[in-house]
Amino acid sequence: MRESVRTHTVSGYHQVGTSRMGVDTRSVVDPTLRVYGVEYLWSADASVRPLPTRNPTGRTMMIGKRAADFTLGHSVHPR
């Protein structure tokens, strides 16, 4: 029975929220999606979202669009 459950079921859990966004020292990315401590690196995925209340696809696509806007408008000078 256990093997059947493991083989024939899937999780509906969405892996999100592993890269905290903010301006404090506990954050991984800033509000423009730049990763702290690494020049020219942005995070453009669901990891910057808090836990979702529904399917994250639309919001994750919006994060990617915003990241594109931020990186296209970025100068070559570090912050």
UniProtKB/TrEMBL annotation:
Gene3D superfamilies on file: 3.30.410.40, FAD/NAD(P)-binding domain
Segments forming domain Glucose-methanol-choline oxidoreductase C-terminal: 3-64
GO molecular function: flavin adenine dinucleotide binding; oxidoreductase activity, acting on CH-OH group of donors
Top-rank taxon: Bacteria
Residue ranges of the TM segments: none
InterPro entries per UniProt: FAD/NAD-bd_sf, GMC_OxRdtase, GMC_OxRtase_C
Pfam family, one: GMC_oxred_C
Family: Belongs to the GMC oxidoreductase family.
Protein name as annotated: Choline dehydrogenase-like flavoprotein
